[in-house]
């Protein structure tokens, strides 16, 4: 599924000279096709494929256009109408993929993965609390990982490199070529196996012609986004590209007590790529990246405070914070520090491809390092109820080797490969509870975690007939992780003099499983394909590594598995002026990993990851793209899903508290959620309309309108304080540009209705907090590409 704006309807011609000694085919003025004489020259004029979608465009049938004779008596001109929606190759593949192009990413100011949430159906991207880590949910499958040490259900790839750590996945995105959101169990053709799907981020590559450009985006709340790039060849077989960005300002939150602002960005990054072709069969790309984020953190707003009975904030853009001097000194923060980030990411990689004749060999080698320091006030008040300071250092090494058949005309297409990754993590988490009433101390939890995974995969596509294809895939993965040096200690206060310094033994979690898929594709008509698939995926188990007070909290979760059934169709009508794609899915979900609760004797209720024995999710998705007249592009995406717990009993924290008040005893009391709705957003809508109008012969003016709707979400069943109400967003804009497209000027208003909405609601100690979405932003953007 693809979105592409501001595209002309017909491509320019490409002149191809037929070699001497070959016969040429020519169209006479009457339209009759004749055979050229031997030894003469013939020329054909055909269109070029657009961008990186050459394979898809090549699949379209060219139309012969009759023209007047040229100076060459034996010539033809072939004009192929350009598909305004692109991605023609994907229209013949039985998978559900949402493609978001670089134009759309820039239009929505997408500078990190959180900006993707309203651009793809049934996709949720939420910050973990107010930290810089992110959690993904796709078609209702995901994990709220508050320590970012577990494998996500949705894997993020950047230029083919998997980023399984939430902080890495949440880092900046710039100089983009596009993003693909793929749904359902994956890992049969590349990378790691996961249950929910993938977000594949592709950054721009070096070019063989000289290009350079810049853009500046300025909006309300003093927000600015600056991008720069240069790309050119150094020689006939070496090219480079250097890109950088910086983002400043944008903080729209106010301290409800002092009026101070919060949320200003202060981050930037660089990326460099060098491509080398030692011969005409080999391409090697060396890359390096660096990013620094010294932004202010997003602030939490108080929904419920049971510790100090702070009234609920009626304006979700209000926040509060208040760090004790002892906590700031202990964590190395200076006095007066606001909630903030101090994150550094850097890495390097080598991508090697080689044409072996019968197949393409590709390898991807990558190393990524991160240093994360997040200071957060998660109660959103001036009291030290639930203040956090997270320090995590981690590195990732990955290696992939893949061999894929090369000839697209062979009946059997195949793809085999191996993937390995190793992560090392050290984390120190400070919690200040001194103002909570129930836990009057500062607590420190630290641990190390090592993880490595090795997987092998294979995928086949068999052409049974011209219109019928069968698919099969298998993957095996072994994931081994160790948690060690786990320690929890408390810094005593006058009201809590009890010593507490617990050390926990080494824990391990080993997952060793197979998964597989089978599918069918039937090209009923040249412009209509039906498909169906059955896929089985799994995700390895992991650890609860936050706020550990008893050894039982370190028992690893079991792996989760998902059996996915999907049927769908893809179609284009009226010479590619209308595209209509749809699918329906049914998920049988076992061992779903969720952030649950456990009761600790003589302590209270604590967080702990648990497995839900069985759940079911089903839904439908539809995409409609229309280009009824030149310049007018319409897009509508519809997603509807439902999920229910089939077998799930969880700690009833309200009953536990009531029993403790009545009897003075802490008891684990459970509530059955069998048949209860999972709380995932049922309806998601996303659409746009734009019209590229010609102003004379040299200029264009493009007004556009984008909108999205997201249904209500409830992450914790049975408590409506966690429910995020439904919301509707609308963006409008106007772009002026020359016909060449070498520069443009835009004015826009995002969230023009100024809707107030939440992006997440989570629990803190003795309370519930929320994180608000972005308010109305009015701005302008200037872009140059030369």
Automatic annotation (TrEMBL):
TonB-dependent receptor plug domain residues are: 92-197
Q: Membrane topology for this entry?
A: Multi-pass membrane protein
| The TonB-dependent receptor-like beta-barrel domain, residue ranges | 293-752
Record GO cellular component, one term: cell outer membrane
What are the recorded Gene Ontology BP terms?
Answer: iron ion transport
Q: Which UniProt keywords apply?
A: Cell outer membrane, Ion transport, Iron, Iron transport, Membrane, Receptor, Signal, TonB box, Transmembrane, Transmembrane beta strand, Transport
Which is a Pfam family this sequence falls into? Plug
Chief subcellular location equals membrane
Subcellular location per the Swiss-Prot or TrEMBL entry: Cell outer membrane
Q: Which residues cross the membrane?
A: none
Presence of keyword Chaperone:
no
Signal peptide feature range: 1-26
Please give the Gene3D superfamilies that the UniProt record associates with this protein: TonB-dependent receptor, beta-barrel domain
Family, according to the entry, reads as follows:
Belongs to the TonB-dependent receptor family.
Output this protein's name: TonB-dependent receptor
Source organism per entry reads Gluconobacter roseus NBRC 3990
């Amino acid at each position: 599924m693809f979105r592409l704006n501001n595209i002309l309807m017909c491509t320019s011609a490409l002149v191809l000279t037929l070699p001497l000694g070959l016969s040429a085919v020519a169209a006479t003025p009457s339209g009759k096709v004749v055979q050229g004489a031997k030894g003469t020259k013939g020329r054909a004029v055909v269109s070029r494929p657009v961008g990186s979608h050459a394979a898809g465009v090549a699949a379209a049938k060219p139309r012969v256009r009759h023209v007047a004779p040229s100076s060459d008596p034996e010539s033809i001109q072939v004009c192929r109408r350009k598909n305004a929606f692109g991605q023609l190759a994907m229209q013949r593949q039985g998978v559900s993929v949402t493609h978001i192009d670089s134009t759309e990413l820039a239009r929505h100011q997408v500078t990190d993965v959180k900006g993707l949430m309203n651009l793809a159906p049934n996709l949720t991207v939420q910050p973990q609390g107010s930290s810089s880590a992110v959690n993904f949910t796709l078609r209702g499958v995901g994990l709220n990982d508050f320590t970012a040490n577990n494998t996500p259900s949705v894997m993020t790839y950047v230029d083919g490199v998997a980023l399984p750590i939430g902080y890495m996945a949440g880092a900046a995105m710039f100089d983009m070529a596009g993003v693909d959101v793929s749904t359902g169990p994956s890992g049969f053709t590349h990378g790691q196996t996961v249950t929910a799907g993938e977000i594949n981020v592709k950054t721009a590559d070096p070019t063989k012609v000289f290009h350079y450009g810049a853009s500046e985006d300025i909006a309300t709340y003093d927000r600015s986004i600056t991008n720069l790039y240069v790309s050119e060849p150094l020689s006939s077989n070496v090219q480079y590209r250097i890109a950088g960005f910086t983002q400043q300002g944008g903080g729209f939150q106010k301290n409800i007590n002092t009026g101070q602002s919060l949320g200003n960005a202060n981050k930037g990054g660089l990326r460099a790529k060098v491509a080398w072709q030692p011969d005409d069969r080999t391409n090697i790309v060396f890359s390096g990246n660096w990013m620094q984020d010294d932004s202010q953190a997003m602030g939490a707003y108080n929904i419920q405070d049971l510790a100090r009975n702070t009234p609920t904030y009626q304006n979700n853009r209000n926040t509060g914070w208040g760090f004790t001097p002892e906590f700031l000194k202990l964590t190395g923060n200076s006095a007066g520090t606001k909630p903030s980030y101090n994150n550094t990411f850097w890495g390097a990689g080598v991508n090697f491809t080689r044409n072996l004749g019968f197949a393409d060999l590709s390898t991807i080698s990558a190393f990524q390092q991160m240093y994360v320091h997040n200071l957060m006030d998660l109660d959103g008040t001036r009291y030290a109820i639930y203040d956090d300071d997270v320090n995590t250092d981690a590195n990732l090494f990955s290696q992939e080797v893949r061999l894929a058949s090369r000839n697209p005309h062979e009946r059997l297409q195949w793809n085999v490969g191996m993937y390995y990754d190793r992560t090392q993590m050290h984390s120190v988490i400070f919690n200040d509870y001194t103002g909570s009433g129930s836990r009057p101390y500062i607590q420190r939890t630290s641990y190390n975690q090592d993880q490595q995974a090795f997987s092998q995969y294979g995928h086949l596509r068999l052409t049974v007939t011209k219109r019928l294809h069968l698919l099969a895939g298998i993957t095996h993965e072994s994931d081994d992780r160790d948690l060690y040096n786990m320690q929890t200690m408390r810094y005593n206060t006058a009201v809590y003099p009890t010593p507490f310094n617990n050390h926990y033994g080494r824990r391990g979690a080993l997952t060793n499983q197979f998964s597989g898929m089978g599918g069918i594709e039937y090209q009923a008509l040249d412009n209509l394909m039906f498909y169906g698939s059955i896929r089985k995926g799994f995700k390895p188990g992991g650890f609860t590594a936050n706020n550990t007070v008893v050894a039982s909290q370190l028992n690893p979760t079991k792996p989760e598995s998902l059996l996915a059934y999907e049927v769908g169709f893809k179609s284009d009508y009226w010479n590619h002026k209308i595209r209509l794609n749809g699918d329906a899915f049914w998920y049988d979900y076992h061992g779903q990993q969720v952030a649950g609760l456990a009761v600790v004797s003589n302590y209270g209720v604590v967080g702990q990851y648990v497995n839900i024995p069985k759940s079911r999710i089903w839904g439908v998705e539809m995409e409609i793209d229309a280009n009824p007249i030149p310049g007018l592009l319409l897009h509508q995406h519809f997603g509807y899903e439902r999920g229910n717990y089939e077998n799930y009993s969880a700690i009833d924290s309200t009953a536990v508290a009531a029993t403790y008040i009545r009897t003075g005893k802490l008891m684990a009391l459970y509530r059955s959620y069998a048949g209860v709705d999972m709380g995932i957003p049922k309806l998601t809508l996303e659409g746009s309309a734009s019209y590229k109008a010609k102003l004379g012969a040299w200029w264009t003016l493009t007004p556009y309108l984008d909108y999205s709707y997201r249904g209500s979400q409830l992450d914790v069943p049975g408590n409506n304080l966690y429910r995020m109400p439904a919301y509707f967003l609308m963006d409008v804009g106007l772009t002026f540009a020359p016909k060449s497209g070498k520069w443009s000027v835009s004015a826009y208003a995002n969230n023009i209705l100024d809707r107030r909405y939440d992006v997440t609601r989570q629990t803190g100690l003795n309370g519930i907090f929320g994180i608000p979405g972005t308010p109305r932003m009015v701005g302008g953007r200037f872009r140059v590409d030369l």
